[in-house]
Structures are given as structure tokens and as C-alpha cells.
Specification:
Layout: H1 21-49, H2 51-79
The protein binds zinc ion.
Amino acid sequence: MTGKPCARCGSTERYASGRCAPCKRESSRAWYAANTERKREATRKWQAANPELVAAYDRKRRGKAANLAAMNANAIAIMTL
Ligand SMILES: [Zn+2]
């Protein structure tokens, strides 16, 4: 179990599962990079297919931001009392 170097990179750093740590890190990094691109593409498609939902989310987000701004204004008003 221990001390056997990885066939791919020669590292002896292993996880408890037995997988080579540097190779696992590299593959998950690559998977993440590939996946963010896919996710972005899926989001683009979803937004194109659901413009009214996107607008609704946008309104919600803007409403939250407006609430936050009002809260900040209140906090400033209290602080300057
Ligand atoms: Zn390796």
C-alpha cells in the first residue's frame, strides 16, 4: 500500500483511498476547468430559453440590493443621530 510510486507521475504521495494525490489534484482541477465552461454554456442556454425567468431573478436581485441600500441609509441615519 505504501511507498509504491505512481505509474503516471512517480509520486508516492497517496490518499487513504490509494489514489495518487498529485494525479487526483490534477484531474480534479482539469475536471473543474472543463466543467465551469460547460456550466457557463448551460447557463447561457437556460437564460436564452427562459428570458422572463431571468428578468424575474434580476428584479429580485435588484430589490434585494435596494433593500440593502435602504438598510445602509438607515444605519447611517442612526449612527449620525
Ligand atoms: Zn500520480
